[in-house]
Amino acid sequence: MTALLIDTRTLTGRSLRHILRSPDTIITTAVMPIAFMLLFVYVFGGAIDSGSESYVNYLLPGILLITIASGVSYTAYRLFLDVSGGIFERLRSMPIARSSMLWAHVLTSLVANLVSLAVVIIVAFAMGFRSGADAWAWLAVLGILVLFTVALTWLAVVAGLLAKTQDGAIAFSYPLIFLPFISSAFVPTATMPGPVRWFAENQPVTAIVNSVRGLLAQEPVGGEIWVASLWCTAILAGAILAAMAAYRRRTR
Q1: Cα–Cα distances in Å, from 14 out to 17, 71, 144, 158, 184?
Q2: In the predicted model, what is the mean pLDDT of the chain?
Q3: What does residue 90 show for φ and ψ, rounded to 5 degrees?
Q4: Given 3-state DSSP classes, what are the helix, strand and coil percentages for the chain, each rounded to the nearest 5?
Q5: Under a CB-based contact definition with an 8 Å cutoff, are residues 139 and 59 in contact?
Q6: Rounded to an integer, what distance in angstroms lies between the CA atom of residue 177 and that of residue 151?
Q7: Cα–Cα distance between 7 and 67 in angstroms, integer?
Q8: Average pLDDT rounded to a whole number, residues 151-172
Q9: For the ranges 60-69, 164-173, 193-202, which has the lowest average pLDDT?
Q10: Is residue 27 over pLDDT 80?
Q11: How far apart are the first and last CA of the chain?
């Protein structure tokens, strides 16, 4: 276990140095969600009834999830480059814990996504977002976002290991970015037609968005936060199993 931690720390430092040399990765990841936020608040926001709260407060949770979905695509891309470029083969020839190579990419993704989320939240504050949430509520929001990021990152690991091309490695994130649009992220689900409404109310993004929105608005979240946590945990467990199977297959 100690060797795994040391190797993971070393390889995570290597990946983070790559990001520091090209910070455009984080900037690019944050640009699209910020563009969506500007578009929805200043173009469509006036036509959407979000109740008593401002629309930027209403849609920020969904924008944060899009930021994460966009960010993990770079994990799949970087992992694909490491595998196709022979980095994995060279590392495997060294006496290091094998799973440390995957964990390093996961931790790097977590750090990069947290920075991108911070950038998006700062822009949201500049656009009028306000929250009276206390420190515990913010910690709960952080916990949900971290769990969601790690779960999606492990899905990205699967994509990075199985992809045949760079475009294929990145393309896996497109459905993840699109999923918040069929949820409560931008409009109340009650305004959607029957089948779409059923899907929106029973997919994981809605539970996560409602939990984060409720915590930031200091409203009771009830069992929604447990549903969100269960969805993230189930995705995480399934993704780790799939990633380990793909890793064994790729390095056989």
Answers
A1: 5, 18, 27, 21, 38
A2: 87
A3: -65, -40
A4: 80, 0, 20
A5: no
A6: 14
A7: 29
A8: 87
A9: 164-173
A10: no
A11: 23
Give the integer Cα–Cα distance in Å for 164 and 76. Answer: 11
Q: CA triplet 234, 120, 125: central angle to 5 degrees?
A: 120
Place of tokens 């799939």: 242
Residue of 95, 88, 84 lying closest to 14 (CA atoms): 88
Give the span between the Cα atoms of 158 and 178, in whole angstroms. 19
Calculate the alpha carbon distances from 50 to 45, 165, 178, 185, 206 in Å.
9, 42, 21, 11, 15
DSSP state of 50: -
Tell me the C-alpha distance between 236 and 152, whole Å: 7
Report which of 111, 113, 109 is spatially closest to residue 30, judged by C-alpha positions.
113
Asked if 115 contacts 26 with a C-beta cutoff of 8 angstroms, the reply is: yes
The residue type at 44: F
- The residue ranges of DSSP E strands in the chain, in sequence order, are none
Q: What are phi and psi of 234, to 5 degrees?
A: -65, -45
Closest CA to 57 of 163, 214, 208: 214
6-15 as b/e: b if 16+ CB within 10 A? ebbeebbeeb
What does the pLDDT look like over 80-107, one tens digit per residue? Answer: 888 887 777 777 777 777 778 888 889 9
Look-up: residue for tokens 């495997």?
92
How much is the pTM? 0.89
- CA 85 to chain centroid: 26
Rounded to an integer, what distance in angstroms lies between the CA atom of residue 247 and that of residue 161? 7
